[in-house]
């Protein structure tokens, strides 16, 4: 009885810690509590990066809508220039008065990246920019060049100063502008190892106009720039994610991890983003051949491009993460004497414990994927030769897992289609669905309901299979059960090794830890509960952040993509727990462990 209680306790603790620490990974570091947010001046700021000063900048620059050419953008940029002058930095302003035809040409350059021939009409451009009857669109890029002696090697840091006409853009993108001001303050008076260019663009919200003009008008930076760092936002809360990099990013990610006190990124996210037509100012730089990295927060997307993106609503923890990440990157990239940024391969990287980033060369990850599949097949073959596994039991479990994934995705899609049809026909479900007229403030509740429904159905499916087979509680069957649940991820890992290496870690780690459970049971049975708990913990630590980020990025109308990931996670965990529970039953029945 005591032994069983200890096993249950171990499993429950591993589940709790896996969920808790997995969730903590997607939370930003804590800002100082009870912070006095009353405005301060540069002279009153701490020598170290000062969140209070940064909040002062945000309050002043995001006090009103500051779209291109508006009185608000003039006041925002005037404040920015005043701060630069007070810090003792020289700056230049690239000013443009673009005709509608010139704006159309710049937009066509952007859309040509995706082969889209669509040409924005004059009316669309005027409406998006709020130009009214004005014939010219005013843009002002502000450039701060910090010169290092005896080198032209350059790092570019970039954020945009304009907002949409719908809101004041406190996080899109003034938080980034404010963070870069603190980055400039962090290197003031220090002997830097390479040139720095702080580029504050204009017209990003109108179609990346300012960055396009910079690239065309400043070709001198093409061959001397080592890296472009862009800061953005698609919400106003959550962890600051490095969500995009250029190819061969191994050294970029290593430098990021070294520079920042609380790094957060996933190789699966950076790879998927490359396939998406979501763009920032960095897009033009990437297509022009510049190496670059891109950052954003994505929580609270309902504030994005609305009046809710203001000083009162944003997460102070997220603002603090912008501050620490930006100042860490600026000082690291500016001061490090020798800077290795180039590599011949990508990294496979993922959060592993809050504030910690695991980085593996892609080639190593691929080897681990090959090993995971090879060991799984070898162990299955060994059990078959020893007649310890019934092949029918293995295929039944293997097939049930795939069926559960297909049904969870397919049925979620059907349910969403029905709900959206009813929504557009009868205005139902407006609180949980995201559409043109409703954000769906309680969409996370619907997502949780889907998880509960399909998790329950998956558990019932596996129970039903075992009952229909009338399988006895023998260790041999539960070898088949556990191997059956890890064969599919082992195969997926092998596929990743060949076609999508960035996602390999999601498969080889759970497979290897599950294989360790079986091997430990064979060699050292008393340690099985410990390794089972470890396997459950590792799986949750990997998948909780992924599920959270997918939900925040793809939103409820793509839940049919996210639910199979949830169910997949549960089958991996369930396979390990079921194995432990039933070998315990075997021992309670007086049978000897299968290989003793």
Key phrases:
596 residues, alpha/beta, seven-stranded mixed sheet, two-stranded antiparallel ribbon, 18 helices, 9 strands, globular
Describe this structure in words.
- With 596 residues, the protein is α/β, with parallel strands linked by helices.
- It is built from 18 helices and nine strands.
- The protein has helices at residues 2-24, 51-61, 71-87, 100-112, 122-129, 170-187, 209-217, 250-259, 267-273, 282-287, 316-335, 362-385, 391-426, 443-469, 475-499, 505-523, 528-554, 559-588; strands spanning 92-99, 136-146, 154-160, 195-201, 225-231, 241-245, 292-296, 347-351, 357-361.
- A seven-stranded mixed beta sheet has the order 1-2-4-3-5-7-6, with helices on both faces. Strands 8-9 form a two-stranded antiparallel sheet.
- Strand 3 (154-160), helix 6 and strand 4 (195-201) form a beta-alpha-beta unit.
- Helix 2 crosses helix 6 (170-187) and helix 17 runs antiparallel to helix 18.
- The chain is globular.
- The mean pLDDT is 93.
